[in-house]
Amino acid sequence: MWESRNQNLTATEAVEILHSGGTLTHAIAKSAIEDFSLAALSHRPDEASLLRTAITTPWDVGDTTSAARIQRSYDNLRGTVTWVEHLLKVRPDYASGIIVRNYQRCCAGADKSSIAVSWADYDYRRRCHFALELLLSSLTRDLSQREHATISEIVADWATEDNASDWVLSLWPQAKSTWQQTAIDSRSSVPPTLFADTAVPIDNLRNVSPSEQALAAFAILSATTSQTGSLRHNGLIEMQTAYPGDRSIQLIEDASDEPFSDMMARLLQLAAMAHLQTTLRKMGNGQKCSLRFFPDGPHLRPTGLGMSPGHSGDRLTNVCRFLTDLGMLQNIDNGLCPAEATS
Q1: The most confident of 10-24, 46-60, 140-154, 194-208, by mean pLDDT
Q2: Strand, helix or coil at 93?
Q3: Higher pLDDT, 326 or 93
Q4: How many other CB atoms are there within 10 angstroms of residue 154's CB atom?
């Protein structure tokens, strides 16, 4: 790698200036773009070839235990690359679209390969996490208008509201009447295909009322419970009781004829406890306070910190970026496709 790059850079004016000083002109800077810019390996096929070998060939560490772990990591990466290329041969797309299409295929039982199921598991957990973020946001926003309140008091107030927006009703027509239903009837009324073939619209759900955010969280969890039932029950998605997302799915799956408001209170309690445990642990490790509220007996008191529900960027986007940089994928008008598909 060093020899290849050194051969390309040794005689350039930009490198000479870096070593010996001088005036960096616009022309010299422009001539260095191919050598120093990100996503420019298409201009250096020898370097790209070496990097492709590096990400597909495990190194020998001379330690059996470490070698096995490294081999698994490389197998997973190679499997992901093959999986991405296969889906992009079927249809050009971006990382977010690949994740959703794979989730839908795995939920339908169309793909049970380990790599595909691993990425379906990843999307399942992101959906659960975002639903918990919505619950936390709804609680935080409501508390910001009060001095203190119990979760039961908040839920009781929401149950008297009659303000389900047209947008929420277009996703879940029965949302308006769900406060008068049982938990199991509410779960059954959520369309099982909700967001099965599309990413959850995060921005839209940031702009609805707190009670609607809570309803949307319940709808996402209910739909996700339905969609992933086969994967979870067959052990392809392994449930972990330590994960709040898995516990929320179990609550939904165990829904009974209890009032819907009781189910909502339990989900909010789960989200609140997860927030308190995570934040207090971080504070114990020296990180700054990010508590949105704190318990005072049975009441929660707001701290004044707001929040915006969401989740971190998907990991697949970075994978697709370096595959594109290595010349294995190519950007076209309607997404990414394997480079060979354009030749």
Answers
A1: 140-154
A2: strand
A3: 93
A4: 22
Asked if residue 309 is part of any domain, the answer here is no
* Whether 75 and 138 share a structural domain: no
In a domain, 178, yes or no: yes
Instruction: Please report where in the chains the tokens 């950007």 appear, as a residue.
Output: 331
Q: Indicate whether 146 belongs to any domain.
A: yes
Measure the CA–CA gap between 131 and 213, rounded to whole angstroms: 9
**Please, are residues 291 and 303 in contact by the beta-carbon 8 Å criterion?**
yes
- Domain assignment present for residue 297? The answer is yes
Question: Do residues 262 and 198 both lie within one domain?
Answer: yes
For 181-222, how does the pLDDT look when each residue is reduced to its tens digit (9 = 90+)?
A: 999 999 999 999 999 999 999 988 998 999 999 999 999 999
Query: What are the phi and psi torsion angles at 337 (to 5°)?
Result: -145, 160
pTM attached to this predicted model: 0.88
245 within 8 A of 125, measured Cβ to Cβ: yes
Q: Which domain holds residue 206?
A: 125-302
Q: Domain check: are 130 and 243 in the same one?
A: yes
